[in-house]
Amino acid sequence: MQLDSINATFKLKNGIDIPVLGLGTYKAHGDELISAILDALKIGYRSIDTASFYENEEEVGEAIKASDIERKDIFLTTKVWNDEQGYDETLKAFDRSMGRLEVDYIDMYLIHWPVAGKFKETWRALESLYEQGVVRAIGVCNFLEHQLKDLMSTANVPPMVDQIEHHPELVQPALREFLKENHIQQEAWSPIMRGRVMEIPQIVEIAKKYHKTPAQVVLRWDIQNGVVTIPKSVHRNRIKENSEIFDFELTEAEMKMIDDLDKGKRTGPDPKSFDF
């Protein structure tokens, strides 16, 4: 596995390549977001993550059109929100997302949260979209092991990705192992704990050794663990800094040290008890 370039990718179960580093866009809007995406694409990012819930698909689509990067070279992800779930509802939601993004296919379409009683029908819609070829890969977000097992018990196409909250204080090693065993690519949201990794002494020490920032150390930890990471920023210097993780490598001892910081501590909702 070569992790020495921003062009590095992991291969999904169906053979599609997904960039190991992407740009998250949650809570980013307007011209600020368009500029951030254009900056990221110039720096070398080729993966953009959005969702219908973010209410910024129009800006994402506008930025992609305004860039000089060909559409085929950009890995675009969006997601179906909770109140859009169900078979027919998901197909309609997908059409709305396509219209807002102004594209004719999506690289990856994800179920945003495991809505009980709905996610199996939602998945059936994703399978239909995948079979039609308008989506290159399908997956889920925020699914725990028992929810994945339930989904996979009736799925014709197993999920290719699980995008979950993942950072040094929420490692979820059992879930990580389950994903690896089932060839489901793990993807990390909130990888730098909304900036709080800067306050963890062990990570600060590792960062000093490599002349890197704590955020860069954690993003490197992600990709060395085989985890796709999608840090969010609208600031060019931070977007560039987040991409500068391919010129150093953490030792096994350092990887374990970060793993051992796990506290089972979430910054976001718990997939077992969310109520939205």
TrEMBL record:
Site (Lowers pKa of active site Tyr): 79
Amino acids binding substrate: 112
Domain NADP-dependent oxidoreductase, first and last residues per copy: 21-262
UniProt keyword terms in alphabetical order: NADP, Oxidoreductase
Record InterPro entries: AKR, Aldo/ket_reductase_CS, NAD(P)_OxRdtase_dom_sf, NADP_OxRdtase_dom
GO molecular function: oxidoreductase activity, acting on the CH-OH group of donors, NAD or NADP as acceptor
Keyword ATP-binding: no
One Pfam family here: Aldo_ket_red
SUPFAM superfamilies linked to this entry: NAD(P)-linked oxidoreductase (SSF51430)
Active site: 54
Family: Belongs to the aldo/keto reductase family.
PANTHER family noted in UniProt: 2,5-DIKETO-D-GLUCONIC ACID REDUCTASE, NADP-DEPENDENT OXIDOREDUCTASE DOMAIN-CONTAINING PROTEIN
Protein name: Aldo/keto reductase
